[in-house]
User: Fold SnoaL-like domain-containing protein from Microbulbifer agarilyticus.
Amino acid sequence: MQRQAGNCAVAKQLYDAFLAGDIDGIYALLDPNIEWELVGSDEVPHFGVYRGLDEVKRFFSIVGDINRVESFEVLSYTETEKGAYVECRERGHFVGHPQHFDIRSCQILEIESGRIVRFRIYQDTSQMVDAWRS
Assistant:
């Protein structure tokens, strides 16, 4: 297996923790003043901007209540000067909503001194909104 460059190694630790359900492992990689954003319609409850670790914890609480991930796959890691780009694929549904989503996303991490200071997700928001409305 190829060794990941510095920022990609941090990104890989984040996704490994996510896939293992290690929420404390995720929090350990985040800067206390992190800006965490899911770009999209505020109609879907977890979309929006979360500032600071307490807000990110609130984000994960919301996601845990409404989102059921059936599969999640990291497709690629790309090292950048300021962090990493991570392409992912996710399939799931929202609790109480029958329509599934099957989306790809680009997740942008800005990393300083081994800590994630900014995390932003761009994804097929129309599928997410449709699944939420169903």
Remarks:
- The mean pLDDT is 94.
- The chain has one domain: 6-133.
- The two ends are 42 Å apart (CA to CA).
